[in-house]
Design a protein that fits this description.
Strand content: 15-25%
Largest sheet: 4 strands, antiparallel
Radius of gyration: 22 Å
Distance between the termini: 58 Å
Number of helices: 8
Length: about 240
């Protein structure tokens, strides 16, 4: 009989910028080729600050293609249910996720902490989330932990019986943590942020699940550092992707 592995319980997500080729100058040379041709390469040696008005114009009037000539690759660790939402973003994104067919999945599971609002009030389209009571937070933690222990124990039992990993993984819940590489450009990231973050400057309100919003906030912080003028134009124009 196998000894159950101890669970690791987390309430966070992690986002690491692995590599990037992304700057505000990328937007400018792509935009200016339409008017000056090969002389647009001169933008690479100039301070993009002098052309922030052009970047703002491109976002405001939704000329989106100049924002595609850059690349950012992130390593993301989050619960599987976050990735199922994430992968609905297909245009301008590439993904590679760890596989339960090829490796034994580790017992790392999601349990929300007290910063996560627990209770939904109102009807669909009109509801809000509010804090739970101490008893509700205790119930979530205890019930999820018990469920995870049973599920991971069943997974280990099947593996010990010689069942293939790709079959045994069916016993595991979506609260299990996974990891993936996600690659995007600034235009596809702006579209993601417009839908998956709630922000006071947004022209079109969005109501994302908190856990994917946590990922979005970390992605945005990295992107804002790489392309500050583009990020500022995104905010100034209602956080709508061009």
């Amino acid at each position: 009989m196998t000894t159950p592995e101890p669970l690791t319980l987390r309430s966070d997500v992690t986002v690491e910028l692995v590599k990037s080729s992304a700057s505000d100058s990328d937007v400018l040379f792509a935009a200016r080729v339409s008017t000056v041709g090969e002389q647009s390469l001169d933008e690479l040696g100039k301070d993009p600050e002098r052309s922030k008005g052009l970047i703002n114009y491109l976002v405001r009037d939704r000329h989106g293609s100049p924002f595609e000539h850059n690349s950012m690759t992130f390593l993301i660790s989050a619960p599987i249910f976050v990735f199922r939402e994430f992968m609905r973003h297909r245009v301008g994104w590439s993904y590679n996720e760890e596989s339960g067919r090829y490796r034994e999945l580790q017992p790392v599971f999601y349990v929300p902490d007290t910063s996560r609002k627990l209770v939904q009030e109102g009807r669909p389209g009109k509801y809000v989330f509010v804090e739970g009571s101490p008893a509700q937070y205790d119930a979530v933690r205890d019930t999820l932990t018990e469920s995870y222990e049973q599920a991971y124990g069943a997974y280990q039992k099947l593996l010990a019986e010689g069942v293939a990993r790709e079959v045994a993984r069916a016993a595991l819940p979506v609260g299990l943590y996974s990891s993936m590489y996600a690659t995007c450009n600034a235009r596809s990231l702006m579209h993601f942020l417009g839908l998956r973050t709630q922000h006071e400057l947004a022209k079109v309100p969005s109501f994302p699940q908190r856990e994917i919003e946590m990922v979005g906030e970390k992605l945005e912080a990295e992107w804002a550092r790489l392309m500050p003028l583009t990020h500022a134009a995104f905010n100034a124009n209602g956080r709508v992707a061009p």
